[in-house]
Design goal:
The structure holds 2 protein chains of 2 kinds. Chain A is an all-alpha fold. Chain A has 20 helices and no strands. Chain B is about 35% helix and about 20% strand. In chain B, the strands form 4 sheets. In chain B, strands 6-5-14-12-13-11-9-10 form an 8-stranded mixed beta sheet, with helices on both faces. Chain B starts with a helix and ends in a 7-residue tail after the last helix. Classes of the chains: A mainly alpha, B alpha/beta.
């Protein structure tokens, strides 16, 4: 089930919400667990078993680890847990990729498994792994109640596309959380804003990307419009999902970590990655980069660590070489920034730094969205005029006009301008009173508009569901 | 401080109440409002509640069908579709709604680019039919420009290369005489909300056909004009724009009134105009009772000894009644619904005039011709 669907918005959500608030406190987690399993089952009936296996495995592994903390048994249990999690992830996500490369390399014809990717497996396996590792490190206590733990693993707001919520972030809330009108209201507000980002902006930009792919009149300018549109699409798609997840979490009394902080206003790539998919970045930092030694040791070791982390970050996004290249591309730029370019960047005008980030990021998403390595080279060739295409075509001009307002709105929405205006309004008495009407009216307008787009069924995929 | 908290509290109450009320109301609305079976605006049947089975749930087909069902039967569906259209056009300033655009009061659907391969497939199909059935007969072909020819390029919309389409046909179609129709038409000869042309605006087209094919048709002034209304063209429903409906003006005289239309596939005989039947979803079906694979129109009053075979798309439905006076019998073949291999099972090719009459919309997608 996806958040941007009628079944979720007009059936699952109200039924879950009202049931949750009607039952006594001790049954609330049970309701959330049942709702979450139903939510997952609706999209992945068979793979719901994987979710349960992951929950059972890490629940018992962590209990065992805690009992034997400091001994080799704990270490073996940790290895066992990580192997099970990575095994599931590797088998379902990377098996065919591995077979493809073996077949290509060795000329063999090993048959492919053709497994469909269980939705959200990259997210829930990373969550459960982080939990068991934290228990092993003594940073969190193992959960005593299976119901609480299974609720954590399967919690529907962040189950399929993050943010990656660590157990210790919400362990207290799992057992005892407050529910206030402000939380519900803020949660609903955040949810509607995220839903609007997804349906009203990201989906429109997705249409433009598709039009570009199907175009019979490509041009250099069209390649750039596509690159910008896709970069904005993925931001609005993914940050919109994170907003919805955080909003839903808030409605049910949970505080999920933020996942995006206006990454496109960054003035260095180092800063960009502190603002983009923050929970994934911190996961790799805490569970891969630092254990590898981080930036301690020689420059060579540090570069090795960067390469490993960014290869894995890229590869986490999908079993294709372009994702690995995408990760390594960022790894290389981060090394360059930290070693050399950052100090020069700090001396140039902010606009130049901003343009530098945008160029690097836009090119990265062209790599990210390309079909294989040949797709990367042809897309980059198109961008830089190395293809036999005109600089501009009639279709390009038409689509530019067709999507001009969407693109402008997306660019404005990718900056904190609206948020700053809102906070300024809150500070003044009259405007804050006006907001009593303006805010609900705007949210209502957004909800109605989103519903209109859902009812008339158009392009509506979630990009991060495939990761 | 207290005041600020109070403002925040009021706002929280209003937001929560507003959003939850909307969600709950629409949910209850969907549960309790009776399902419709068809959407007149969209000219289609609406999805039924999917059958529940273990297999369909496990392979998620049930869920996919359920989503379609929910969207199809959502309360105030038409209103929401109109909101979407207005949001796209007014707020997002989109120039089209999934291909449908509006220029002045005319709606049209983008058809571009020119699919040269498809045009050649069409030309090849015409040649094959000629070689198989039509040798020795007088064979003509005419191309009907779609509305984009008059609207698209002039208003900044992408458009197919119509001249190239015509020259490709001219170059590849053999043994047939081309009848030029582009200069016989202008945009107001078409319905504003529909792709088709208006029958009462076809005088120039008719005269051109008459001149080239050497028949004598009834003068336009001799027809009585009748009106069928309201007519909501195909693009109204597709675009969900709130646009006034139109009227179909159709021409009738004694000959047309007494002529009969025999639908071979349905084995059913009807009048030339059928305002009382089959027009619920598509008003244009008033002409020859809508789409059909093979139809035979008999003019019992005529003794001209002339017969005509038209290979056609839906544009011919409104033109053909105006040809009835000139022929004893007109056979209409729609190759979208009937394979050309079967033609000799139903038609004896012998001395007839033959006209291939196709719009650019079909020729640009000629693989649909069977």
């Amino acid at each position: 089930m996806v958040f941007s669907s009628i079944s979720f918005l007009y059936y699952f959500l109200p039924v879950t919400f009202f049931t949750y608030f009607l039952v006594p406190r001790k049954f609330k987690n049970f309701i959330l667990l049942i709702a979450s399993l139903t939510f997952y089952f609706y999209g992945e009936p068979i793979y719901t078993v994987l979710l349960l296996i992951s929950s059972v495995s890490d629940f018992f592994h962590s209990r065992y680890i805690e009992r034997h903390l400091g001994s080799k048994k704990a270490k073996y249990a940790l290895v066992s847990s990580v192997v099970i999690n990575l095994g599931m992830l590797g088998f379902f996500k990377y098996a065919d990729f591995l077979l493809l490369n073996i077949n290509q390399l060795l000329g063999t014809t090993i048959p492919y498994l053709h497994l469909s990717l269980p939705i959200g497996i990259s997210f829930f396996t990373f969550q459960t792994m982080s939990y068991t590792i934290d228990v092993y490190r003594g940073e969190t206590k193992a959960e005593r109640g299976f119901l609480n733990f299974a609720t954590y693993v399967s919690l529907f707001p962040q189950l399929v596309a993050g943010p990656i919520v660590r157990y210790q972030t919400i362990s207290d809330e799992l057992k005892n959380r407050r529910h206030t009108l402000a939380q519900v209201s803020n949660g609903l507000k955040r949810f509607v804003i995220g839903l609007s980002k997804k349906v009203l902006i990201a989906n429109q930009l997705g249409e433009l990307s598709n039009i570009f792919r199907d175009s019979h009149e490509p041009s250099v300018l069209f390649y750039w419009i596509y690159a910008i549109a896709f970069s904005l699409q993925i931001y609005f798609d993914f940050s919109g999902y994170s907003d919805m997840a955080i909003g839903l979490g808030r409605m049910f009394g949970f505080s999920f970590p933020e996942n995006f902080n206006y990454p496109y206003v960054s003035r260095s790539i180092t800063n960009f990655w502190r603002r983009w998919h923050m929970t994934l970045g911190s996961w790799f930092r805490d569970y891969v980069y630092i254990p590898l030694g981080g930036n301690r040791g020689t420059a060579a070791l540090w570069i090795r660590n960067i390469v490993i982390v960014w290869f894995l970050t890229g590869f986490w996004h999908g079993a294709q070489w372009n994702f690995a290249i995408w990760g390594l591309y960022f790894g290389a730029i981060l090394v360059l920034e930290k070693k050399w370019t950052l100090k020069y960047l700090e001396r140039v005008h902010g606009v130049v730094r901003h343009l530098y980030v945008l160029l690097i990021v836009i090119l990265s998403f062209v790599i990210f969205n390309a079909t294989g390595i040949s797709g990367i080279s042809s897309d980059l060739a198109g961008l830089f005029g190395f293809m036999d295409i005109p600089m501009i075509s009639n279709e390009t001009i038409y689509q530019m006009k067709n999507y001009a307002v969407v693109l402008i709105l997306a660019v404005i929405g990718a900056t904190p301008v609206i948020k700053e205006v809102y906070f300024k309004m809150l500070k003044h008495k009259i405007s804050s009173i006006l907001l009593i009407v303006i805010e609900p009216a705007t949210l209502l307008l957004l909800l109605v508009s989103v519903t209109a787009f859902l009812v008339d069924g158009s392009y509506n995929p979630f990009l991060y569901f495939r990761f | 401080m207290i005041e600020k908290k109070m403002i925040e509290k009021i706002k929280n109450i209003v937001i929560t109440a507003t959003i939850l009320t909307v969600i709950l109301s629409l949910m209850l609305g969907q549960i309790f409002i009776k399902d419709e079976s068809i959407s007149l605006a969209e000219r289609r049947k609406l999805a039924l509640f999917p059958t529940i089975s273990f297999e369909e749930i496990i392979n998620t087909k049930f869920m996919s069908k359920f989503e379609v069902y929910l969207a199809d039967h959502f309360p105030f569906r038409e209103g929401f579709r109109q909101i979407k259209s207005n949001f796209s056009l007014s707020l997002l300033h989109k120039k089209e709604l999934e291909g449908i655009y509006k220029v002045d009061d005319h709606l049209s659907k983008l058809e571009f680019p020119l699919n040269e391969d498809q045009v050649l497939i069409g030309a090849k199909k015409f040649n094959e039919i000629y070689a198989q059935y039509l040798k020795g007969l007088k064979v003509y072909y005419a191309v009907i420009p779609d509305k984009n020819y008059f609207l698209a390029e002039q208003n900044g919309y992408p458009s197919m290369d119509y001249m190239l389409l015509k020259s490709l046909l001219n170059e590849h179609i053999q043994n047939m005489t081309e009848i030029e129709l582009f200069d016989c038409l202008e945009i107001d000869d078409y319905y504003k909300t529909d792709p088709h042309w208006k029958q009462d605006k076809l005088e120039k087209v008719l005269l051109r056909l008459q001149e080239k094919m050497s028949f004598t048709s009834t003068p336009f002034s001799a027809y009585d004009k009748l009106i069928f209304a309201p007519f909501n063209g195909a693009y109204i429903g597709q675009s969900a724009l709130n646009i006034p409906s139109e009227a179909i003006m159709y021409m009738i005289d004694d000959i047309i009134e007494k002529a009969t239309v025999f639908n071979v596939e349905q084995s059913e005989t009807t009048d030339v105009y059928t305002p009382g039947a089959n027009t619920t979803l598509d008003g244009y079906s008033i002409f020859l009772n809508g789409a059909a694979a093979l139809e035979i129109i008999e003019n019992s009053n005529s003794k001209s000894g002339k017969e005509l075979i038209i290979f056609r798309d839906s544009f011919a439905s409104s033109l053909t009644p105006l040809l009835i006076g000139a022929y004893d019998k007109i056979t209409l073949v729609d190759l979208r619904y009937m394979p050309s291999d079967l033609l000799n099972e139903y038609i004896t090719f012998d001395e007839q005039d033959v006209l291939f009459l196709y719009s650019t919309l079909v020729l640009n997608n000629s693989s649909m011709l069977r």
